[in-house]
Amino acid sequence: MKNNKENYDAIIIGSGIGGLVTASQLAAKGAKVLVLEKYIIPGGSGGSFKRNGYTFDVGASMIFGFGENGYTNLLTRALKDVNEKCETIPDPVQLEYHLPNNFNISVDKSYEDFLNKLIAIFPEEKDGIEKFYGSCKSVFNCLDSMPLLSIEDPYYLFKVFFKSPLSCLGLARWLPINAGDVARRFIKDPELLKFIDIECFCWSVMPALKTPMINAGMVFTDRHVGGINYPKGGVGKIAEKLVSGIEKLGSKIRYKANVTEIIIQDKRAVGVKLSNGEKLFSKIIVSNSTRWDTFGLNNQKKGLIKTDHVPLSEHRWTKNYKPSPSFVSLHLGVTKDLLHKSFNCHHIIVENWDELENEKGVIFISIPTLLDPSLAPVDKHIIHAFTPSSIDEWENLSREEYLIKKQNYSLYIIKKISKIIPNLENNIHHKEIGTPRTHRKFLGRFEGSYGPIPNKKLLGLLPMPFNTTKINNLYCVGDSCFPGQGLNAVAFSGYACAHKIGSKLNINRFNLPD
Asked: Which 3 state secondary structure label does DSSP give 478?
């Protein structure tokens, strides 16, 4: 059994965007970091993979956080901090919705154009629409006027409050509030409220009543301010560039390094054990696994922490949160002439409002080659479609049953997409389908989940756990931590985690970020 001889300041388990931002921030502060990734590529659900001349994004390709100004452009800032940059392609439309009762609308880059289109559909709700989205803008303006780092650090909070007292007070009032409560304060039309639900669901996998107003404010405004900007070469370029920056600063990433245990001694995390028996030691351990996988929660057989070391606070967390559904993902290579170049990149199909949160209730569609043709052969487009699906749907199946079910889901998704892309079935040249079992296996996520969602309506972001744990020197990062799901949200989690660790290691800069 080998033990490491190198002395690391931090070992990070998992190379999802949250873990990589943590690593990049620590490396930029001068720390020596080791990232351990059990798969062969970085990024997790924010990665890409290649097949037969296609570059497919593992997850969604609708990316926030790549703007140029302010403090909410977290991905841009994270890359800059390690002397890297992604070339991006602006998307003029965030989403085109195809909803019940022939309710179709696209969300333009222009805030005024989008609101005017929505008001034209619901003229009697003009005042409510302006007040709801105006409230979202107020939240965003507060966020965008202050450096976004750890809110667990009292000293940092004092400096931020001194710099931006009104923004801090403005933001604090929104922490316990959900977007649905604000929408219902101003809007009465039930169909418009359903639209607010799908506006939240498309990135939080929750209706508005369960979506924190802080998150909604950032997303609903940043799409018009910073915009939706796709990284040229695929979403996986973000992770690749972060890895490059980390390595140039003297830190490391190891692939095929499957962590099976976090070593606890005297109630402190001191290292990790790999599946090959190797032990690696460090001052700090960071888990970018979900909290279920880290602590073995929800009757999971085994987590990274042995049962007798799991804090009661982690079990209490599971009373408030449950894993969201996973997805069935369909990656297609199709004839290029099937799509006009003016066709929008991102679409959502909902046929029945009552099915919104159910199995196959929503179809998400992304066509990234409309923005970056280099992702596919010259005469082809990529269509990436996915629909929510529970792990329970895919357990206890024979190999034959599993393959038949995959084929049936594939046919179902293609049929739904064909309503907006006619003749699709006859123009497919490449097809791959992933299930919740696929996501669990390759992404290492409990039940293949997209992240935690509330068991019941909660007070905004207040119940979300932060980066610190009850085990000394052990931190968590990613969508199981404040502020939740989405690449920009986990980037924030990475910034916060690195800042908190930096305070402990006494390597943080004195001045606030510019």
From this structure: coil
Question: What is the residue whose two structure tokens read 């607010």?
Answer: 196
pLDDT digits (tens, 9 = 90+) for 362-416: 999 999 999 999 999 999 999 999 999 999 999 999 999 999 999 999 999 999 9
- Distance CA(294)–CA(336), nearest Å, equals 43
Measured over the CA atoms of residue 224, residue 225, residue 231 and residue 232, the dihedral's sign is: positive
Q: Are 58 and 235 in contact (CB under 8 A)?
A: yes
What is the identity of the amino acid at 270?
Answer: V
Q: What is the pLDDT of residues 228-258, one digit of tens each?
A: 999 999 999 999 999 999 999 999 999 999 9
127, containing H or E segment: helix 126-144
CA distance 455 to 320: 5
For residue 246, CA distances in Å to 33, 233, 417 come to: 8, 20, 40
3-state secondary structure 296-323: CCCCCCCCCCCHHHCCHHHHHHHHHEEE
Between β-strands 93-99 and 346-349, what pairing exists: parallel, antiparallel or unpaired? parallel
Average pLDDT of the chain to the nearest whole number: 92
* Cβ 392 vs Cβ 449: under 8 Å: no
pLDDT at residue 153 tops 80: no
Give the three-state DSSP class for 363.
Answer: strand
d(CA 290, CA 444): 9
Q: Which residues contact 75 (CB under 8 A, 6 or more apart)?
A: 17, 63, 65, 66, 86, 238, 487, 488, 491
pTM score of the predicted model: 0.93
Classify residue 247 by burial, with Cβ atoms within 10 Å: 0-12, 13-18, 19+. middle
Report cis status (omega within 30 of 0) of the bond before 483.
yes
Alpha-carbon torsion, ordered 303, 306, 307, 309, to 10 deg: -120
> Which amino acid type is present at position 135?
S
